[in-house]
C-alpha cells in the first residue's frame, strides 16, 4: 500500500480502487502507516507517503 502512494496527495477512494481492496480494509492500514510516520493524511481524506528513514539513521547527509 505504501508503494501506491507518493508526494502527490491521493484520495482514499483512489487508493482503494487501485489496490482492488474495499475502503474498510484500506483505511485501517493507512491509519497504522500514519501512526508509524510513513504516510500523512491531508485535507479531504487524501494521503501522501513520507520518506522512510531506516532505524539508526538520522536522515541527514
Question: Which key phrases capture this entry?
Answer:
alpha+beta, Arc Repressor Mutant, subunit A, 3-stranded antiparallel beta sheet
Characterization of this structure:
By secondary structure, this protein is of the alpha+beta class. Helices cover 34% and strands 16% of the residues. It has one domain (2-49): Arc Repressor Mutant, subunit A (Orthogonal Bundle). The chain contains 2 helices and 3 strands, in the order E-H-H-E-E. A 3-stranded antiparallel beta sheet has the order 1-3-2. Strand 2 (39-42) and strand 3 form a beta hairpin. Helix 1 packs across helix 2. The protein starts with 9 loop residues before the first strand and ends in a 12-residue tail after the last strand. 11% of the residues are buried. The model has no long low-confidence stretch (mean pLDDT 92).
At the fold tier of CATH, the topology name is Arc Repressor Mutant, subunit A
**How many β-strand runs?**
3
**Oligomer state of the chains in this structure:** single chain
Roughly what fraction of the amino acids lie in strands?
A: 15-25%
Q: Can you identify the CATH class?
A: Mainly Alpha
SSE string = EHHEE
| Helix content estimate | 25-40%
Backbone CA Rg: 12 Å
Strand order of the largest sheet: 1-3-2
Shape estimate: elongated
Question: Unreliable runs, pLDDT <50, ≥5 residues?
Answer: none
Please give the count of helices. Answer: 2
Cα-to-Cα separation, first versus last residue: 28 Å
Query: How many discrete structural domains?
Result: 1
Largest sheet: 3 strands, antiparallel
Q: What is the correct CATH architecture? A: Orthogonal Bundle
Mean pLDDT: 92
Amino acid at each position: 500500500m505504501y508503494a501506491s502512494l507518493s508526494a502527490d496527495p491521493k484520495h482514499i477512494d483512489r487508493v482503494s480502487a487501485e489496490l482492488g481492496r474495499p475502503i474498510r480494509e484500506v483505511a485501517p492500514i493507512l491509519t497504522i502507516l500514519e501512526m508509524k510516520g510513513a504516510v500523512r493524511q491531508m485535507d479531504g481524506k487524501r494521503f501522501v507517503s513520507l520518506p522512510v528513514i531506516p532505524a539508526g539513521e538520522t536522515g541527514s547527509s
